[in-house]
């Protein structure tokens, strides 16, 4: 059983949705918490197992079409994630995981598939694959940083009135309408691999701050060097 | 061999000229550019060049080039073999390979996983060798469940003998529609892409190499060949110590499946195995190169499963240089670095270089592995004391290092 003082990170369905370095987001949250002396307990929840509702931060990653549909079905049937969010837990949902947070997304033949309804978004299959570096200006409500990462998806996502865009794209496709990702309450969705938190340590700290309160600064030298290099490589001069 | 029609002859001759030009101008091995010129002139060229030969197609995420080389070496026991030895594994490369050796009665072709259905259809190859499927550079390689699904459709209803690794559930699923399958137990160290059943999505239960779906009938077929540590057990339960000159578990797995392919051609283990032992280096991989008293062993690793195998080959008592790029052939997304468990390198001197060394630096920092960042490969080598050093690089980083040694390796 988790002790009461530890930060509880729950990684949902690594056996279905962890196609591209999604584990990195987990490792980065762990590192940045431990560096601040915050003890961490991480649970990897396989798709055959129930999702615990006692976590602080939930993560879900990217994957192929069929595993995405399976993950959506299981999460809906399970209910644990919904209970956790109702309790006030936070969630980072990436790529395929981002799409299934909505009310509907596109299946392998483009057919509409029912999402789990935690975000007011609707996704469908776009005309072409969006592949490449992305840079975007983040919503001032989340600190107004520059978002950096790598996108690789065929989705087009329409944001409803219940969510705000995470960012406005400078380079890249994102949701397909000049925005990338979205947020509502303590749920953040994004198309970005990178992984997203390796490229955006400020976002990792948003989640840690929600869970534990104000954070002490830590040495971000390697994060900053990588961010600077990537942003220099992609931002228009 | 039948005579090629005039237009096809012309196309393949022009292709050869372009290949020669590419080689003399130093732009590459020449194997792809020659094939491209040939294909433009004669789309049917591959079909014609493939006709009347006994062909093996070799495909997998990892080990294609080496296994192609091993099978080629074996079949040379039976006669001349045409092969794409330089890893040019798309149809243009196949045209080059077959055109450069028109008399050869055998062909062994390394085939990119995505192109397998197309190349199978065009060449009507009789034997297909399938080893493993795992996450690769996804911005270009595509999705592996989808890939396995395409293999199933391509193999169904044809007279093809497949030799496949039954320890990999996705390969098994992709191969099982073929009319004849020889199942080989080659192991599967990287399991992160096969925790779920490709048939129904249920959880796969695993015990050792064995696996079975908890929710449907899909389970590991009974193998007739086994890799057993340093040896191969054949269908008659005879145990053959491999004693290869290529290092590592992955190459023993490649050899096991190559021996099963040889038997499909009527070549017994006692004749095939000595041929496998003659192979020492494949396209520069596993070779030792010397520089100023340092002996560098070059290991190629292109994806998480490949890095796992490279760590296994690597000598934990030695310093190690890691070089990572993210050009087109590498995949431009470096996220895969987070799927590799680098903690195994703790305690070794680690040197980090390559065009995406900062991605790797952060990855190692988060893993808690101390390292030294080096601007160039030369700078990393200059840090080394005389003696042996291991080098692991991904695709274009590896080619850059090879080029520095003048492709002598
Ligand atoms: Zn099943």
UniProtKB/TrEMBL annotation, chain A:
Query: What CDD domains does the annotation carry?
Result: GATase1_CobQ (cd01750)
Q: Which InterPro entries match?
A: Class_I_gatase-like (IPR029062), CobQ_GATase1 (IPR033949), GATase_3 (IPR011698), Lipid_II_synth_GatD (IPR043702)
The residues that cross the membrane are none
* Record: residues binding substrate: 129
> Keyword RNA-binding: yes or no?
no
- Keywords (A to Z) from UniProt: Cell shape, Cell wall biogenesis/degradation, Glutamine amidotransferase, Hydrolase, Ligase, Peptidoglycan synthesis
Catalytic function, reaction form: L-glutamine + H2O = L-glutamate + NH4(+); beta-D-GlcNAc-(1->4)-Mur2Ac(oyl-L-Ala-gamma-D-Glu-L-Lys-D-Ala-D-Ala)-di-trans,octa-cis-undecaprenyl diphosphate + L-glutamine + ATP + H2O = beta-D-GlcNAc-(1->4)-Mur2Ac(oyl-L-Ala-D-isoglutaminyl-L-Lys-D-Ala-D-Ala)-di-trans,octa-cis-undecaprenyl diphosphate + L-glutamate + ADP + phosphate + H(+)
Q: Show where the CobB/CobQ-like glutamine amidotransferase domain sits.
A: 8-200
Record pathway = Cell wall biogenesis; peptidoglycan biosynthesis
List of catalytic residues: 95 (nucleophile), 193
One GO BP annotation here? peptidoglycan biosynthetic process
Report the superkingdom from the record. Answer: Bacteria
**EC?**
6.3.5.13, 3.5.1.2
Q: Give yes or no: UniProt keyword Plastid.
A: no
Database matches in Pfam families: GATase_3
Q: Mention one GO molecular function.
A: glutaminase activity
Q: Cite the PANTHER family for this sequence.
A: DETHIOBIOTIN SYNTHETASE (PTHR21343), LIPID II ISOGLUTAMINYL SYNTHASE (GLUTAMINE-HYDROLYZING) SUBUNIT GATD (PTHR21343:SF9)
User: What does the function comment of this entry state?
Assistant: The lipid II isoglutaminyl synthase complex catalyzes the formation of alpha-D-isoglutamine in the cell wall lipid II stem peptide. The GatD subunit catalyzes the hydrolysis of glutamine to glutamate and ammonia. The resulting ammonia molecule is channeled to the active site of MurT.
Alphabetical list of HAMAP family matching this protein: Lipid_II_synth_GatD
Q: Which family, according to the similarity comment?
A: Belongs to the CobB/CobQ family. GatD subfamily.
What quaternary structure, including any partners, is listed in this protein's UniProt entry?
A: Forms a heterodimer with MurT.
The protein depicted here goes by the name: Lipid II isoglutaminyl synthase (glutamine-hydrolyzing) subunit GatD
- Its source organism is Sphaerisporangium melleum
Q: Which gene encodes it?
A: gatD
From TrEMBL, chain B:
Q: Where is the Mur ligase central domain?
A: 61-169
Enzymatic reactions: beta-D-GlcNAc-(1->4)-Mur2Ac(oyl-L-Ala-gamma-D-Glu-L-Lys-D-Ala-D-Ala)-di-trans,octa-cis-undecaprenyl diphosphate + ATP = beta-D-GlcNAc-(1->4)-Mur2Ac(oyl-L-Ala-gamma-D-O-P-Glu-L-Lys-D-Ala-D-Ala)-di-trans,octa-cis-undecaprenyl diphosphate + ADP; beta-D-GlcNAc-(1->4)-Mur2Ac(oyl-L-Ala-gamma-D-Glu-L-Lys-D-Ala-D-Ala)-di-trans,octa-cis-undecaprenyl diphosphate + L-glutamine + ATP + H2O = beta-D-GlcNAc-(1->4)-Mur2Ac(oyl-L-Ala-D-isoglutaminyl-L-Lys-D-Ala-D-Ala)-di-trans,octa-cis-undecaprenyl diphosphate + L-glutamate + ADP + phosphate + H(+); beta-D-GlcNAc-(1->4)-Mur2Ac(oyl-L-Ala-gamma-D-O-P-Glu-L-Lys-D-Ala-D-Ala)-di-trans,octa-cis-undecaprenyl diphosphate + NH4(+) = beta-D-GlcNAc-(1->4)-Mur2Ac(oyl-L-Ala-D-isoglutaminyl-L-Lys-D-Ala-D-Ala)-di-trans,octa-cis-undecaprenyl diphosphate + phosphate + H(+)
Citing just one GO molecular function, the answer is:
ATP binding
Example GO biological process term? peptidoglycan biosynthetic process
Alphabetic keyword roster: ATP-binding, Cell shape, Cell wall biogenesis/degradation, Ligase, Metal-binding, Nucleotide-binding, Peptidoglycan synthesis, Zinc
Which annotated residues bind Zn(2+)?
Answer: 197, 200, 213, 216
Q: What is its EC number?
A: 6.3.5.13
The active site is formed by: 333
Q: Name all Lipid II isoglutaminyl synthase (glutamine-hydrolyzing) subunit MurT C-terminal domain ranges.
A: 300-398
Named in its record, the pathway it takes part in is: Cell wall biogenesis; peptidoglycan biosynthesis
Instruction: Extract the Pfam families matched here.
Output: Mur_ligase_M (PF08245), MurT_C (PF08353)
Function per UniProt: The lipid II isoglutaminyl synthase complex catalyzes the formation of alpha-D-isoglutamine in the cell wall lipid II stem peptide. The MurT subunit catalyzes the ATP-dependent amidation of D-glutamate residue of lipid II, converting it to an isoglutamine residue.
The text of the family note is: Belongs to the MurCDEF family. MurT subfamily.
In terms of PANTHER family, this protein maps to: LIPID II ISOGLUTAMINYL SYNTHASE (GLUTAMINE-HYDROLYZING) SUBUNIT MURT (PTHR23135:SF7), MUR LIGASE FAMILY MEMBER (PTHR23135)
What is known about its subunit structure?
Forms a heterodimer with GatD.
Q: What is this protein called?
A: Lipid II isoglutaminyl synthase (glutamine-hydrolyzing) subunit MurT
Q: Which organism is it from?
A: Sphaerisporangium melleum
């Amino acid at each position: 059983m988790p002790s009461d003082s530890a930060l509880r990170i729950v990684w949902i369905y690594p056996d279905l949705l962890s196609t591209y370095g999604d584990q990195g987001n987990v490792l980065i949250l762990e590192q940045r918490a431990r560096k601040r002396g915050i003890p961490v307990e991480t649970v990897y929840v396989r798709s055959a197992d129930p999702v615990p509702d006692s976590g602080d931060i939930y993560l879900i990653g990217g994957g192929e079409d069929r595993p995405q549909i399976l993950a959506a079905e299981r999460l809906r049937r399970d209910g644990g994630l919904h209970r956790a969010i109702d309790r006030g837990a936070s969630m980072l949902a990436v790529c395929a995981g981002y799409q299934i947070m909505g009310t509907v997304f596109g299946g392998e033949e483009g057919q509409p598939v029912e999402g789990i309804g935690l975000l007011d978004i609707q996704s469908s299959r776009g005309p072409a694959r969006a592949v490449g570096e992305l840079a975007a200006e983040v919503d001032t409500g989340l600190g107004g940083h520059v978002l950096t990462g790598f996108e690789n998806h065929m989705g087009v996502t329409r944001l409803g009135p219940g969510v705000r865009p995470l960012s406005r794209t400078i380079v890249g496709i994102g949701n397909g309408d000049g925005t990338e990702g979205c947020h509502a309450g303590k749920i953040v969705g994004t198309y970005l691999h990178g992984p997203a938190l390796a490229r955006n340590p400020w976002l990792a700290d948003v989640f840690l701050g929600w869970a534990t309160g104000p954070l002490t600064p830590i040495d971000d030298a390697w994060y900053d060097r990588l961010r600077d290099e990537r942003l220099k490589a992609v931002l228009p001069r | 061999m039948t005579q090629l029609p005039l237009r096809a002859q012309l196309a393949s001759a022009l292709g050869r000229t372009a290949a020669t030009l590419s080689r003399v101008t130093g732009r590459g091995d020449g194997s792809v550019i020659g094939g491209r010129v040939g294909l433009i002139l004669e789309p049917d060229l591959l079909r014609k060049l493939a006709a009347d030969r006994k062909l093996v197609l070799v495909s997998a995420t990892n080990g294609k080039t080496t296994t192609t080389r091993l099978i080629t070496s074996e079949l040379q026991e039976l006669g001349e073999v045409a092969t794409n030895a330089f890893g040019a594994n798309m149809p243009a490369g196949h045209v080059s390979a077959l055109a450069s050796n028109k008399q050869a009665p055998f062909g062994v072709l390394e085939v990119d996983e995505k192109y397998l259905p197309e190349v199978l259809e065009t060449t009507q190859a009789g034997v297909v060798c399938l080893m493993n499927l795992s996450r690769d550079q996804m911005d270009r390689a595509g999705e592996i469940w989808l890939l396995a699904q395409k293999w199933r459709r391509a193999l169904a209803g044809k007279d093809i003998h497949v030799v496949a690794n039954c320890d990999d559930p996705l390969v098994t699923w992709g191969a099982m529609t073929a009319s004849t399958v020889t199942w080989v137990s080659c192991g599967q160290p990287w399991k992160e892409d096969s925790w779920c059943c490709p048939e129904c999505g249920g959880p796969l239960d695993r015990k050792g190499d064995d696996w079975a779906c908890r929710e449907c009938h899909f389970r590991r077929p009974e193998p007739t060949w086994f890799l057993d540590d340093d040896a191969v057990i054949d269908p008659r339960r005879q145990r053959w110590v491999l004693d290869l000159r290529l290092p590592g578990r992955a190459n023993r797995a490649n050899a096991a499946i190559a021996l099963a392919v040889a038997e499909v051609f009527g070549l017994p283990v006692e004749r095939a195995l000595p041929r496998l032992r003659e192979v020492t280096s494949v396209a520069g991989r596993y070779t030792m190169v010397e520089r100023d008293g340092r002996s560098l062993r070059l290991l190629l690793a292109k994806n998480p499963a490949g890095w796992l195998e490279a760590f296994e080959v690597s000598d934990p008592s030695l310093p190690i240089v890691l070089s990572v790029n993210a050009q087109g052939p590498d995949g431009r997304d470096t996220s895969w670095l987070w799927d590799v468990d680098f903690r195994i390198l703790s305690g070794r001197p680690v040197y980090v270089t390559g065009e995406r060394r900062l991605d790797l630096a952060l990855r190692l920092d988060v893993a808690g592995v101390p390292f030294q960042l080096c601007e160039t490969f030369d700078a990393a080598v200059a840090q080394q004391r005389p003696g042996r050093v291991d080098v692991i690089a991904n695709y274009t980083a590896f080619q850059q290092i090879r080029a520095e040694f003048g492709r002598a390796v």
